[in-house]
Amino acid sequence: MNKNLTISQQADWNLLPWSQIEKFVFSLQLTIYKLSFRNSKVELHKLQEFFATSYAAKLFVVKQISESRTVLLQDINSFKSLNSSQKLHLALSMEIGLSTLPFNLKNELINFYDSAKNQLLYLALRPEWEAYSKNNNVLCLLDRSANSMIQSVVYDLNLSYFNRRLYIATFVVEKEELNIDFVLNILSTIDKFNTHIQHFLRNQKDNKSLFPNLDISNFKLDIKDFDHLLSHIVLLNFEIQLCNIIYDRNHFRFHRYQDTIIFFSDDLKNLSDFFEQAIHWLSEVGLRYNKKKTRIFTKQQSFEFLGFEIVPKFLVVRDNIYSQIYLNAAKEQRKLVLAKARYILRSKRKDGTTRAKTNMPLYKAIVLINPLVVNWRSHYSLFVPRSTLDQLDWLLNEKLYRWYVKRLKKNRVTHWNKKCIQIVKNKKRIAQDGYILELFNEFNP
Question: What is the pLDDT, as a whole number, of residue 129?
Answer without folding.
Answer: 92
